[in-house]
Amino acid sequence: MLVDDDAATNWLNEELIEDLDMANHVVISTNGEEALDYFNNIEGKNFIRPNLVLLDINMPLMDGFEFLEKYSKLDTSLHAEVVIMFLTTSDSTIDKDRANGKLVKGFIEKPLKRDKLMNIWENYFL
After folding, report:
1. Rounded mean pLDDT of 107-123?
2. In sequence order, what are the beta bridge partners of 85?
3. Phi-psi region of 60 (alpha: psi -120 to 50; beta: other; left: phi over 0)
4. Three-class HEC string of the chain
5. Domain count, the chain
């Protein structure tokens, strides 16, 4: 799942994921609220639980931290095996400290590149 308000970023990241054959399906949400709605619709015919969520911090309607706050209150079966990584331009220690203990496995600095994605794959999915 890609959660970012920048359409070009989502398109590039989806292309990279598909080029590396790392997913059967990529869900794109343009803000945290849309992503949360996706997780709240588990009964929907199109629901596929993501294994990985690449989450931007700064987005309209609901930012990455607001998403995490609400997401953490969902049934644990929805996020038990989901790896969440912040994919952001922020290298702020304040953001990193704020993310500590909030289901986030780490920070990746934009842009997403092959080596960064491979590192996630090797660390969490092999």
Report:
1. 95
2. 54, 106
3. beta
4. CEECCCHHHHHHHHHHHHHCCCCCCCCEECCHHHHHHHHCCCCCCCCCCCCEEEECCCCCCCCHHHHHHHHCCCCHHHHCCCEEEEEECCCCHHHHHHHCCCCEEEEEECCCCHHHHHHHHHHHCC
5. 1
Q: Answer yes or no: is 48 within a domain.
A: yes
pTM beyond 0.90: the answer is: yes
Look over the chain and give the mean of its residue pLDDT values, rounded to a whole number. 91
CATH number assigned to the domain comprising residue 80: 3.40.50.2300
Q: What are 15's two structure tokens?
A: 């292309």
Residue 23's domain comprises 16-121
Q: Which residues pair with 84 in a beta bridge?
A: 53, 104
Q: Quick one: average pLDDT of 40-58? A: 89
Q: Which two tokens stand for residue 69?
A: 């706050």
